[in-house]
């Protein structure tokens, strides 16, 4: 690793806790919809991702042995149990609110119970989430979302979560990531009829 690349990586790691603080303190919170992509920061250089299946259940890969894993449905508490930066969960969003799709949620449920090899960059949680989102056809974000400079800041360095974010953008129209304060959100999907951000969205045409 060159000095320049090491400095760039250090900058990325330093941005992450600052970004979390800003998102947690100043930006509005969201509630995911079925098929939303979720992730939490485990520590300054790693994330854990999954797919929101509805009813406060998250379909995700759980490591339960040496290089062994199983696709399970987890509660938000279990999903964030190894997070050191905070307990809140990032949700795929556009400028209107949370984005997801029933087909993505259904695809994530199809694999529940499946056991597999697990690697940090091969067969990991981000690749599982990407596979579920790729159930949908690719679309394109709006011109506003492409040009908005606030969307250019990214603290991600690991290639498979970068790919997951790109996939969520092209298939779900996810151009933002906002926090879900699940510890203070006691409703469920059917209880909330407040508006479009709780309606599963189809990818942009």
Percentage of residues in strands: 15-25%
Question: What structural category arises from helix and sheet content?
Answer: alpha+beta
Number of strands: 8
Along the chain, the helix and strand elements come as: HEEEEHEEHEHHHE
Terminal Cα span: 41 Å
Principal-axis shape:
globular
Contiguous low-pLDDT stretches (5 residues minimum) are: 4-11, 191-205
| Helical content (DSSP H or I, runs of 4+) | 25-40%
Mean pLDDT: 81
Notable characteristics:
single chain, 205 residues, alpha+beta, eight-stranded antiparallel beta sheet, 8 strands, globular, disordered C terminus
Secondary-structure topology with pairs:
Layout: H1 3-25, E1 37-43, E2 46-54, E3 57-65, E4 68-74, H2 76-79, E5 89-94, E6 97-98, H3 102-110, E7 115-117, H4 125-133, H5 143-147, H6 159-172, E8 176-180
Helix pairs in contact: 3-4, 4-6
Structure, described:
- The structure is a single chain.
- The chain is α+β, with helices and mostly antiparallel strands and about 200 residues long.
- Strands 1, 2, 3, 4, 5, 6, 7 and 8 form an eight-stranded antiparallel sheet that branches.
- Helix 3 packs across helix 4 and helix 4 runs parallel beside helix 6.
- It is globular, with a radius of gyration of 16 Å.
- The C terminus is likely disordered.
Can you summarize this structure?
It contains six helices and eight strands. The protein has helices spanning 3-25, 76-79, 102-110, 125-133, 143-147, 159-172; strands at residues 37-43, 46-54, 57-65, 68-74, 89-94, 97-98, 115-117, 176-180.
